[in-house]
Amino acid sequence: MNLPLPAKLGLIALLLPGLALARSSDRNQPMNLDSDRYDCNLADENGRCRFSGNVVIEQGTLHITAETADVYRSNGQPSRVVLSGSQVKLRQQMDDGTPMAATADSMDYNIANETIVLSGNYTVESPRGTNSGQRMTYNLATGNMNSGGDGSRVRTVLQPKQRSAPEAK
What is the pLDDT of residue 27? Predict the structure, then answer.
């Protein structure tokens, strides 16, 4: 599918979170976006472009599936990207080669604030551990994660660091 530049930029920006530790070379790869429907008014510089129905986004090691992907524009530039559906799924390989996966009912990326909000039964998994709950805000610029505080519980599991075997004498 040949996407208009604002939609491509918005979706590329969404994919940065690979949550900050994602494979940096993926951003230089072509992006493929498939959906059952695409609806966008390119004459409206402050509008929304919607991809809907079995949305699949692939770029390098990044793979996202969702029911809808909304790209919001302000003055012709992408300002926000919202992925939704019955569990949006994101998986990607990090720069060190380890896998990272995230699921949530919605993922909302605010480009100006450099924040992504995972909400609705989210889980983020990597070999380093897991984090799950109802809502997590992740700041891409600072690396700060904030979960809970809304009356729901947050569960974090940290994996122990693998120790090397002692040297034989």
Answer: 65
Cα distances (Å, whole numbers) of residue 164 to 88, 99, 109, 168: 37, 21, 39, 12
Which amino acid, 82?
A: V
Tokens, residue 156:
């974090």
For 91, phi then psi, to 5°, come to: -140, 145
- Give the distance, in angstroms, between the CA of residue 23 and the centroid of all CA atoms in the same chain: 13
Cβ-based burial of 57 (10 A; exposed 0-12, middle 13-18, buried ≥19): buried
Helices (H) and strands (E) in the chain, counts: 1, 10
**Helix, strand, coil % in the chain, rounded to nearest 5:** 10, 55, 35
The residue whose two tokens read 């992925």 is: 83
Question: Could you write out the DSSP letters of every residue in 96-109?
Answer: TS-EEEEEEEEEEE
Q: Say if residue 84's pLDDT is above 80.
A: yes
d(CA 71, CA 109): 10
Q: What is the pLDDT of residue 120?
A: 92
Q: Tokens 């693998």 appear where?
A: 162
Q: 34-81: per-residue pLDDT in tens?
A: 999 999 887 788 889 899 999 998 888 888 899 999 988 888 877 888
